[in-house]
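Notes from the 1:1 (GR / supervisor)

We went over the backlog. Supervisor wanted to see one worked example end to end before approving the batch request, so GR pasted a single chain during the call. The sequence is below; no edits were made to it. Supervisor asked that the structure be written out right there so they could see what the output format looks like.
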Amino acid sequence: MSHPYNASAETVLASTVPPRKHATSRKRGASPSEAKVQKFSGFELFRRALGGHKSWQPQWRSPEPKAEYDVIIVGAGGHGLAAAYYLAKEHGITNVAVIERGWLGGGNTGRNTTIVRSNYLFDESAALYEHAVKLWEGLSADLNYNVMYSARGVLMLAHNHHDEISFKRHVHSNRLNGVDNEWLTAEQVKEFCPPLNITSMRYPIIGGALQRRGGTARHDAVAWGFARAADARGVDIIQNCEVKAIRRGPSGAVEGVETTKGFIRAKKIGVSAAGHTSVVMAMAGLRMPLESYPLQALVSEPVKPAFPTVVMSNTIHAYISQSDKGEMVIGAGTDAYTSYSQRGALHITTHTLDAICELVPQFRRLRMLRNWGGIVDVTPDRSPIIARTPVPGLYVNCGWGTGGFKATPGSGNVFAHTIARDAPHPINAPFTLERFRDGFLIDEAAAAAVAH
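Structure output shown during the call:
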C-alpha cells in the first residue's frame, strides 16, 4: 500500500545519538553475533554520502525459521516487534521468532494516523498510555533510529456543554494521575491553532482539552526501528510465513505453530495480530471478546506547513494533523459493520471531509490523494487485553481499537514482561481476559475521541 509519509532515507537514518565508530558490514542472513551492528549518526550519514550511500547494510536479516524457539510472537507489527525487542533487551530472551503472514509493518502499523497521547480517563488506562508516552520520548535514542516523534500537542475540541463537562473531567483525572492536560477556552484554542474556525459552523467550538506532550511519530520508522534493534539482539524476523494452526500437547499447553514454512516448536507463544487476533486465537480453541471493524483514513496533497498540531473532534467526527511531508492526514470513525476489508468507502470519507471543511474552511480546496482502511479489534469496554490466556504458554495482546499505535512501546514493554515472567506487569495487570467474566471493566469508549 501507499504510506501517508514518505520521508527520505536520510531523514529516517539520521539520529539524535552521538557519532559512533563505524561498524563492520554484516552479510544478509548472518547472525548478529557474527558482526557488529551499524550505528546511525549525523557523522555516519555524511561519511556514507561521500560514497553515494552504497555502503549501508541491510537493517535486519531474512532468516529461515529454526526448528525451535523459546518464544514465538505472531504478528510483526509495532506491538509484536516491540515485545520481541524488550524480551531480548530487558529479559535476556534472545531465542525469539517474530512470524508475519505478510511483510513487516504491513498491517495496522502502516495504516494508522500516527497519533500519540495519554489523556485517557481511568487510572488503569492513564498508567498504560503514559508509560508509552515516556518511552516515546526517548525511543529514537534507545533504538538508535529516528522514529520522528513530534510532541506538537493533541487538542480535543468541545462543541457543546456535554463535551465541556466530559473533557474537564478528563483534565482533572489526568492531573491526579500525573498526566499533563489542560482546558483551553475557545479564544485560547484559536490562538493555539489559528486555522480553526471556532464560530461560523453548525457546532461552534467552545473550548478544548490540550495535551502538549502528545503528538505524532512516523509509523514505518517505528516498525523499522524495533525490527532492526530486535534483530541486532538475535531475534529472527520471519516474513511471508502464515500461521495455519497452534499445536497443543496432551496437557493442553502450547507446543508450537504450524506455518507455511513448516512446524516451529516453542513453549511460549504471544499473539499480537490486531484485527485478526480472533482468527489466530481460534486455532488454539479460544473464543475472544472481540469484534473487528474497518477504520478508514485518507491524506491530501502535500502543502506548506499550515496546521501546527493534532486536532480531534468527536462531535463532528474527524481528526487531522499535518505530516512532515506536508500532507493532511485525516482519520474517520470505524465503519458501522464488522468486516476484514481494508479499502475505503466513499460515504465514510465524504462525511469525514464535510467535518474537516467545517473545522478548517481553507482546506476545502485541497485535493485528496488516497484513502485506505485498517482492521481494528474492539473489546466490549474499548480497552485492550494484555494477558496470559487459559491455555498454558499462550499470551495475547489485542483489543486496542483505534488506540493501538500510540501505545506501541508501552504495550510491547509490558507484554514482554508478561511473557517472560508468566505474570503481568503491574501496569497491565488490570487488562486481563477474565475481567469480562468478573465484571471489572475499564470503559474508555468516551476517551477514544472517535466513535468506535
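Supervisor's comment: The chain has twelve helices and 18 strands.
Batch request approved.
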